[in-house]
Amino acid sequence: MAASASPSPPSSPAAEGIINVFWDDGMLNHDTGKGVFDTGIDPGFLEVLEKHPENADRIKNMVSILKRGPISPYISWHSGIPAHIPQLLSFHTPDYINELVEADKAGGKMVCDGTVLNPGSWGAALLAVGTTLSAMKHVLDGHGKIAYALVRPPGHHAQPTMADGYCFLNNAGLAVQLALNSGCGKVVVIDIDVHYGNGTAEGFYRSNKVLTISLHMNHGSWGPSHPQNGTVDELGEGEGFGYNLNIPLPNGTGDRGYVHAMTELVVPAIQKFEPNMIVLVVGQDSSAFDPNGRQCLTMDGYREMGRIVRSLADRWWIR
Predict the structure, then answer these.
(1) Is the pLDDT of residue 232 over 90?
(2) Closest among 119, 28, 132 to 81, alpha carbons compared
(3) Of 157, 195, 216, 226, which one is the catalytic site residue?
(4) pLDDT value of position 295
(5) Euclidean distance between CA atoms 247 and 231, whole angstroms
(6) How far apart are CA 296 and CA 282, in angstroms?
(7) Is 157 a catalytic residue?
(8) Three-class DSSP category at 162
(9) Residue 44: left (phi > 0), alpha (psi -120 to 50), or beta?
């Protein structure tokens, strides 16, 4: 998750290009196991079991790229801290949080399909939330214009009352709530994960203070944990009607299609909303190389979308 706003100008030109990355190795303790794809099931006749698609190796490589790759001179590293239970209640219900706490005490539980709370998972989830909140606070306090929370377990499918899609706690949703509680009048969430950001949308579905935008593969509902369809007619309810913008995209949309959707749909919606903070949920499974999606985005597409979001962020102030 990346948070971006336009606080006071930095003190030096060099500070302008710095990306503040928030990360902690403790998030590697979430072990999603092996099996057939994301099931964790060993059928007994396979020579080699697959790692769960949301595994620690992928984020280790992301950390390595940021530390050793070409943009490493522009990275400022920050440690994360675990969130406390009361902080979770700004987005999630007490009953749901108690369910997760009890599951952790019992040694783990399959919370929903493909989403397993194993020993070490709860601590990693609390660390993911705390790290994301630290990134948001960094921007809110005026210490930087861009903060990137590199976290796992992921969060955008987690709804106020239940887990979904490898997600236990909604990191981005909790960061948005922190921004609102800190005086940001309006926040926009742009989610480019290959799957609908249903959890974040559900959390703010009746709010006119948060514009939730999701560009995703046109996959529909996938069961009881994900009842939302992600279709264009899911617009919000009550005061939030018109503040949820779903942009379902056909398989293979690619760079040009995503950039077109950003320029023709996302940018005008944000310009009309005039937010005080932008939260970008950077799911990378819309990549051409991801086994779980079919959207064919390349680095060029991600870069161009990043440029678009940065130009939007530069237009508005936090307060």
Answers:
(1) yes
(2) 132
(3) 157
(4) 92
(5) 7
(6) 15
(7) yes
(8) strand
(9) left
